Amino acid sequence: MKKVNHLFLYFTVIVLAFSLAACSHSKEESNSSESGMKSSKSDSAMDKSTENIGTVEDDGKSEETQRKIVYQAQVELQVKDFGDSRALIEKEVQNVKGQMINQEVFNTEGNNQEGTFTLRVPQLSFQDFLRRLQSLKGIKVTSQNIQGNDVTEEYVDLSSRLKAKQAVEARLYEFMKQAKKTEELLQISRDLGTVQEEIENIKGRMQFLDKNSEMSSVTLLIREDKVIIPDIDSKELNTWERSKQSFVQTLQGLISVISSFLVFLIGGSPVLVPIFLIGAGIWYWYRKTRRNE
Hints:
Layout: H1 2-65, E1 69-79, H2 82-95, E2 99-107, E3 113-122, H3 126-135, E4 139-150, H4 152-178, H5 182-214, E5 215-224, H6 234-237, H7 239-267, H8 269-292
Helix pairs in contact: 4-5
Organism: Peribacillus deserti
Transmembrane segments: 253-286
InterPro entries: DUF4349
């Protein structure tokens, strides 16, 4: 009987030992699985943070590439032939997909032509267009002035203001839905109108900056420098007709002089005849006296 009890106790101890070992092993596996999950979570978090860093850097680069600069250029040109040079310039404007906004042409005192042209060319083709002007035949660039205005900061500020005004607009719409009194509705409507007007002004300014940063302005002052030799037209010579006119004018002048002289003699005869007689008497007496001597 005692042997049976000892065997039962011995068996019970062995079972308890195995059960404890199994529990400890299961705990170790659960701990290892939890640590693996934690490490995977931390790795994923690190991956996300790395991705965020990459997106931030990309955003920074995109902001740098999206800077808005308004370019303006004033160029003075000296040309040999105004018409030919004008045709070449218009062709170059078409090649870069630009626009001719305004043009003014007039003649100078030397019968040469001058003109002022206002152009709009894409910003990407701005520098290339100015270089091509210098290579055109018969055209000499005498002066060139380029100015650039960076409006990126203003554009970003306008974008932030637009978002804020749009948020206010949305809140006013919500208030309008909840308003019950007429006075409240009128006040909200006035505020909403003011906000919407400010939004339109901001959008208009942003569109203006977009357009001017995408299309650069170029003002050309073109001066023609050539000696104009008039053509000899035989029809304008008219040698025979002009000779007859000159002869008639000379004859008319001679007749006019004779007529004037006769008028003077006849009209002044009451004075001229006595003077002539007295003069003739003095002359006769003088000759007679010389002969006697």
